[in-house]
C-alpha cells in the first residue's frame, strides 16, 4: 500500500516566497500541497494539488480564523508553511488556536519574531550581546547624524518593514528633513557599510537549542524590489563562524535568514528574517530544502540531515506563463 503523503498548506503562493516553498516540495513527492492566497493564479495551480482562496476579511477577525479551521479540516492539513510575513504574524498571534486544531505551523520562536520586528530595538540587543554592529542612530538633525555616523551619504531605513522597501540614501539636510517627516517614527539612520558586491544572504534551519542545520552562504545582488536577483553559493568561513555564534545566542527555530554586509573583512548583520525568505527557491536548487526540513523536524521529530550543498551561481529572470482559461 502506498505511503500516505503529508498534507502541507503553503501560504502566499501568488508571490515569490510561497511559490518557492511549494515548488521546492514537488520533486521529493513527500507532500500533498494546498496553496493558499488571496489571488490564485493559473501559474500557482501548476505546483499545488489543491488551492484555497483567502476571503476578503480582516485577518484579525474570527471569520478569518474560521476560514483556516475549515481549510485544516477539509484537507486534513498536517503542516502549515507561512510564505508571507503577514501570515507569519497571523499564525504567531494565534498559536494556541492552531494547537487546538491539531495542526503544526512552521514558526520561529515568539521571542525572536517579536525582537526582529523592530530593527532599531534589535540592533541594540545585538550590540549588547557583543556582536559587531553597523553604526546606527535616530538623530534629531542632519548635523547630529553626521556627528554620530560620519560623512554622507547615510542610509535611512524603516524600523519596521521587510526587504529593501523604504530604504533611501541621504545626501544632505533636505533629504534628512523630507524622509524623517515622511516616515513619522518609523525610521533609523545607518552608516553605509561595504558595497553592493559585499552583500550576503545566509540560510540556516534552527533547531531551537542553539544548534542548526546549514548554513548555506550566498553572495547576492538585489533587484529593485528588494529581492535577491543574482546569487552565488560559496564558502565564507568568517560569515559561517559568525552565523554559528548568532544561532547559539538567539536560538532560532526553523527556516531563518541572516543578511550581512562585509567591510574590512568583518561581517555586519543587516537583519534576521525569522521565516522563509525570498531566496528559499534558490537555496533549494543548490540542495538546501527548508520545506522538507520542516517535515523532518516538526512532524517526524528528527534532526534534518545536513545537506550536500552544491556551489554555483543563479540568475532570476521573468518569463511568460501561458495557460488555458477554464
Task: Record keyword descriptors for this entry.
326 residues; alpha/beta; Rossmann fold; Dna Ligase, domain 1; D-amino Acid Aminotransferase, Chain A, domain 1; 3 domains; six-stranded antiparallel beta sheet; five-stranded parallel beta sheet; 34% helix; globular
* CATH topology grouping of the largest domain: D-amino Acid Aminotransferase, Chain A, domain 1
Q: List the total number of helices.
A: 12
* Fraction in beta strands: 25-35%
* Low-pLDDT sequence parts: none
CATH class of the largest domain: Alpha Beta
Q: Which class of secondary structure composition applies to the elements? A: alpha/beta
Q: Give the biggest beta sheet.
A: 6 strands, antiparallel
**Helix and strand succession?**
EHEHEHEHHEHHEHEEHEEEEHEEHHE
The percentage helix is: 25-40%
Going by CATH, the homologous superfamily of the largest domain would be ATP-grasp fold, B domain
Give the terminus-to-terminus CA distance: 35 Å
The CATH architecture name of the largest domain reads: 2-Layer Sandwich
Amino acid at each position: 500500500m502506498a505511503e500516505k503523503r503529508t498534507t502541507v498548506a503553503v501560504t502566499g503562493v501568488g508571490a515569490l516566497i510561497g511559490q518557492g516553498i511549494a515548488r521546492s516540495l514537488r520533486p521529493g513527492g513527500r507532500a500533498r500541497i494546498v496553496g493558499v492566497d488571496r489571488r490564485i493564479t493559473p501559474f500557482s495551480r501548476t505546483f499545488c494539488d489543491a488551492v484555497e482562496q483567502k476571503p476578503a476579511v480582516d485577518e484579525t477577525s474570527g471569520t478569518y480564523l474560521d476560514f483556516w479551521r475549515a481549510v485544516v479540516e477539509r484537507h486534513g492539513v498536517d503542516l502549515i508553511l507561512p510564505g508571507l510575513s503577514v501570515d507569519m504574524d497571523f499564525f504567531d498571534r494565534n498559536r494556541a488556536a492552531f494547537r487546538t486544531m491539531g495542526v503544526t505551523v512552521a514558526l520561529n520562536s515568539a521571542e525572536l519574531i517579536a525582537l526582529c520586528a523592530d530593527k532599531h530595538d534589535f540592533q541594540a540587543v545585538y550590540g549588547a550581546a557583543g556582536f559587531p554592529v553597523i553604526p546606527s542612530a535616530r538623530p534629531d538633525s542632519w548635523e547630529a547624524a553626521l556627528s554620530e555616523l560620519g560623512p554622507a551619504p547615510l542610509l535611512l531605513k524603516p524600523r519596521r518593514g521587510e526587504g529593501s522597501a523604504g530604504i533611501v540614501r541621504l545626501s544632505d539636510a533636505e533629504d534628512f528633513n523630507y524622509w524623517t517627516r515622511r516616515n513619522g517614527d518609523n525610521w533609523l539612520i545607518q552608516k553605509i557599510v561595504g558595497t553592493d558586491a559585499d552583500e550576503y544572504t545566509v540560510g540556516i534551519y534552527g533547531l531551537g537549542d542553539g544548534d542548526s542545520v546549514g548554513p548555506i552562504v550566498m553572495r547576492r545582488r538585489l533587484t529593485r524590489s528588494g529581492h535577491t536577483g543574482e546569487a552565488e553559493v560559496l564558502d565564507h568561513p568568517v560569515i559561517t563562524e559568525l552565523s554559528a555564534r548568532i544561532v547559539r545566542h538567539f536560538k532560532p527555530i526553523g527556516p531563518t535568514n541572516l543578511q550581512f554586509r562585509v567591510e574590512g573583512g568583518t561581517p555586519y548583520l543587516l537583519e534576521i528574517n525569522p521565516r522563509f525568505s525570498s531566496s528559499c527557491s534558490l537555496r533549494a536548487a543548490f540542495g538546501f530544502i527548508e520545506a522538507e526540513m520542516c517535515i523532518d523536524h516538526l512532524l517526524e521529530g528528527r534532526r534534518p540531515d545536513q545537506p550536500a550543498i552544491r556551489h554555483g551561481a543563479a540568475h532570476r529572470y521573468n518569463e511568460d506563463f501561458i495557460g488555458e482559461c477554464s
